[in-house]
Design goal:
Layout (H helix, E strand, L loop, with lengths): L7 H28 L3 H19 L28
Length: 85
């Protein structure tokens, strides 16, 4: 987690809220992917959902120390525009 520093408790609460939000959105996305029959996408979303749950429960740290993890590819992700169902 975040080391003891001024304001660390507030940051921890904000981080918890954000991860909770991400997990909720992943649950909703999983339903959309399932409705469309996107099995691989469902699997990947489920893995992210489990990861978020593990972070919230304390089973897994938010991230590892610098140098001990693979960095994200940094691929730009742009919204495709309005979503139509």
């Amino acid at each position: 987690m975040i080391p003891n520093s001024p304001g660390a408790g507030k940051r921890d609460a904000q981080t918890h809220d954000k991860i909770t939000y991400v997990r909720q959105m992943l649950g909703e996305l999983r339903g959309v992917a399932s409705d469309e029959g996107a099995d691989m996408l469902c699997y990947l979303i489920e893995m992210a959902f489990v990861e978020a749950g593990d972070i919230l429960s304390g089973k897994r740290h938010l991230s590892f120390a610098n140098g001990e993890r693979n960095k994200a590819a940094g691929m730009p992700v742009k919204p495709s525009g309005k979503i139509q169902f």
